[in-house]
Amino acid sequence: MKTLLVTTAACALALALGPAAQARGYEAQVVRTKYGVPHVTAKDFGGLGYGQAYAFAQDNLCLLADKIVTVNGERTKHFGPDATNVVAFTDIKNLESDLFFRANIDIETLRANFAKGSADYRELVEGYVAGFNRYLADTPREQRQADCRDAAWVRDITIDDMLRLNEERMIQASGGAWLRQTNAAVPPAAAAPAKAAALVGLPNMAEQIGLGSNGWAFGREATRNKTGLLLGNPHFPWEGTNRFYQIHLTVPGKFDVMGVTIAGAPGISIGFNKDVAWTHTVSTDRHFTLFELKLDPADPTAYLVDGQRHAMERREVTVDTPAGPRAHTYYSTLYGPVVAMPQAGLAWTATTAYALRDANRNNSASAGTWLDIARARSVGEIKAAITASLGIPWVNTIAADRKGDALYADITATPNVSAQKLKDCAPSPAAAKLADGARIYVLDGSRVACNWDAPGLMPGASMPAVIRQDYVANSNDSYWLANASAPMTPFAPIVGPTAVPQNLRTRSGIVEIEARLAGTDGLPGKGLDQAAVKTMLFWNKNHAAELFLDDVVKACGDGGQAASAGGKTLDIGQACAILSKWDRRMDNDSVGAILWVEFWRKAQAIADLYATPFDPADPVHTPRGLKSDEATVAKLRQALAGAVDVLLTEGVPLDAPYGTVHFAVRGQDKIPVHGGEGSDGVLNAQQARWVPAVKGYVPYHGSSYIQVVTFDAKGPVADAVLSYSQSTDPASPHYADQTWLYSKKGWHRLPFHPADIAKEAGPVLKLKQD
C-alpha cells in the first residue's frame, strides 16, 4: 500500500477560516477502496472535514463550486440571467434565483446559530472549508476537472458559503419551493411587476413528495438472523448537488460511520455504524403555513394584527445583468416574506396579502442532529436525538439496529398547528380551499392567537413514531401505514392524511413484504434477509401492470380496431399484442415496458377509472380493476393510441427492449438502466425524460444510493450501489463504474472493518496542514 504525504502552510487558508480554525493543524488519512469510496481517518472532527472535502473535490470540484455560485446569488454574473439552475428540485432562471438568495438568506442569524451550535459540527465545517481550499491550492488548473478548470467562479470557499449551502438544503420543501411566489410579491401599485406576477401560481408541492424513496426496516420477528435489517432506497436527482456521495468517516474510538452525504454536506446523511443503520424518505408534513394579512386601507405595505398597524420591512437587492442592474424589493412581515400567487387567486391586493412562515428557515439544528444519529447505538437513541433537536428538516427517518428493533419516525421541523387551530383560524374561503387539494394551510394573520402555538415547532413527542420488532416501511405516503397491520391514528392534518388512497409504490412494497413474511412470493422459505430484499427491489415489478394490464388487454378487443389520438387514427393491434406478452417488469430486456410507461401516463388522467374504488378498510388492495363500460374502454384505447403515437413520433419501435431506449449517457456509452416510474408502482423508481439528441429516455431522478444493511457478530454487513457513480468528472475512473454495476443489478459489499478495507485499499493519502 503506497503512502502519499502532502503538507501545506496554514497561511494559505487564513483568509477563509476563523481564528480557531487558522490555529489548528488539520491531519487526515484518505484511502480509497473499490469504486472510489474514500475512507477518511482523523484524530478529530476538524480532520474528518478536512479529508472529506479534499476527497470530494477530487471527484466533484465543479459540482460544489457551481452551487456556491448559486447560494451567493452570482449565477447571472457568470452564466447569464436566463439560463436555468435547479432550486428546490425545480428549474429556475438564474436571475430569479440570484435575487431570491441575496434577499432571503439571513447570514447573520446563521452565523450566530453556528457559533452556539454543536462544537463537533463547527470543527467539521471548519475542517471542510480548509480541505476544499487545500485541494485548490494543491492542484494546478490543468489537473482539475476540465468542465471548470478555467472558470472564474471556482474559488476558495468560506464558512459563510457552507452556511448558505446548508440553508438552501433546509428550505427545499418550504421557502425554496416558494421562490417564484416570493419574487412575485409586489404591491398592487407596482403595475409592471404585477403583470409579470400574474403568471405565478401555487408551487407544486406534490412534486416535492413525488421525489420519492423507499425505506424499509425489519426487526427480529421478521428477519432470519434475528437482528435488524434495513433497505435504504432514496429516489433523488442524478444531477446537481442533491446527488449522494459515498464515504466512510472515522475518529478512532469516537466516531465510525459509513454511507452517503448530499454533495458538499460535511458528515453522513444516510448510512450505518456498528450498531444501527438508517435512511430517510420525503415526508408528507407541511413545513410552512401561509398567513392571510389584513392590510391598512391607506397603505398596502402595512398590515393589521389585533388592530395594531405594522409596516412591512423592505429590502432591496440588485443584480447586475448584461442589460444593466436589475433591482427588486422584497417585503417581509412578522411571519416571514410576503408571497403572491395571482394565478391561484391569492394576489396581493389593496386589502389582502399573504406571508409565508417557514419552519426550516435558519434551521441550524440539523447538522448536529445527523452527527447524533451517526453516533447512535440503537434506534431508540435515534428517536431520542431527533425528538430533542427537531432538526430533521423534511424527511421521515427509518432505522434498524443490531438488537432487532425497527424505527419509523416522522419527527421533523413542523409548524405547531393543531386541527382545532386550522378550524378556529380559517382564512377567506378562497384561501381555505387550498387545504383540500394542495394541502397548503392558510391561517388568519390578523390575529395574534392564530400564529403557531408555542414553542413554534410541533414537539417531537407529539409526532408519529413507532418502534417495532416486525417491520416498518414508508414510500412517501403519510405515517398512516408505516405498518399495514397496525395503522396509526390521525395526527394534526399538517403532518399528513390518513384513510386516503396510497401511492402504488406504498401498496407494492407492503404486498411484497407481507408475501415474503408469509413465504408466498416464490422465494425459498419465509422471513427477510439481504438476498430477499435485494431481489424484491430489483424484481422491477410494475404494480400498475400487475393490477390493470389484464383489463387493458381486454379493452383491446380483437386488436384490429383503430383508435384516435391527437387527431390521428392509429392501429393499436401491435401494441395490444406486445402488452399481452409483456413480463410486467421494468428490466433491461423487457419488451413492452416503455409502451406501458407512455400508456399509463395518459390512462391515469381518465376520470372515474377504477372498477373497485378506494376502500380505507382495504387500502393496500384498492382501488383495483378498470371499468369495462363502453366509454371507459374507448378512453383506454385512446390512451393506448396516444402512447403509440408518442413512440412512433420519437422513432422508438413499439417492441424495443427497455434498456435499448432507457439508458444513462456516460461519454459515448449508453448504459441500460432498469427500473421505472414510481407512479407505476415500480419500487426501483426511475424517472426519465426523452432526449432527442441521444434518441432515448435518460433517467434524471430515481434510485440513487441503495443500501441493504444487516448485522453479524462483528457489526454491519452492508451491500450497496450508487447508481450514477461517485464522480461527475468524465475523466475519472469512477464516472460510470457503479452505473454499469447498477445496470447489471450488481452490488458492492462495503468494506467497513479495517481488515476488509485493507483488502481493497489503494494508495494512502496523508494530508497535513502545518
What descriptive keywords fit this protein?
single chain; 770 residues; alpha+beta; eleven-stranded mixed sheet; eight-stranded antiparallel sheet
Short synopsis of the structure:
The protein has 770 residues and is α+β, with helices and mostly antiparallel strands.
Indicate the topology.
Elements (H helix, E strand, L loop, with lengths): L2 E6 L10 H5 L3 E7 L3 E5 L3 H27 L3 H5 L4 E4 L2 E4 H11 L2 H10 L2 H20 L20 H12 L8 H5 L7 H7 L7 H5 L3 E6 L10 E9 L6 E8 L3 E8 L7 E3 L3 E7 L5 E9 L2 E7 L2 E4 L1 E9 L2 E9 L5 E2 L12 E7 L6 H11 L3 H11 L5 E7 L4 E4 L9 H6 L4 H4 L1 H4 L4 E3 L20 E4 L2 E4 L29 H15 L11 H9 L4 H13 L6 E4 L2 E4 L1 H9 L11 H11 L6 E3 L11 E3 L3 H21 L7 H4 L1 E4 L2 E4 L13 E6 L4 E8 L1 E7 L4 E7 L14 H7 L4 E2 L4 H7 L3 E6 L1
Parallel strand pairs: 1-35, 3-8, 12-21
Antiparallel strand pairs: 2-3, 2-35, 4-5, 6-7, 6-23, 7-31, 7-32, 8-9, 9-10, 10-11, 11-19, 12-13, 12-18, 13-14, 15-16, 17-18, 19-20, 20-22, 24-25, 26-27, 28-29, 30-31, 32-33, 33-34
Helix pairs in contact: 2-6, 5-7, 11-12, 18-19, 20-21
Could you characterize what this model shows?
This protein has 770 residues and is of the alpha+beta class. 31% of the residues lie in helices and 25% in strands. It contains 24 helices and 35 strands.
> Shape, please?
globular
Q: Which structural class matches the secondary elements?
A: alpha+beta
What is the end-to-end distance? 24 Å
Main sheet characteristics: 11 strands, mixed
Spatial extent as radius of gyration: 26 Å
Overall strand count: 35
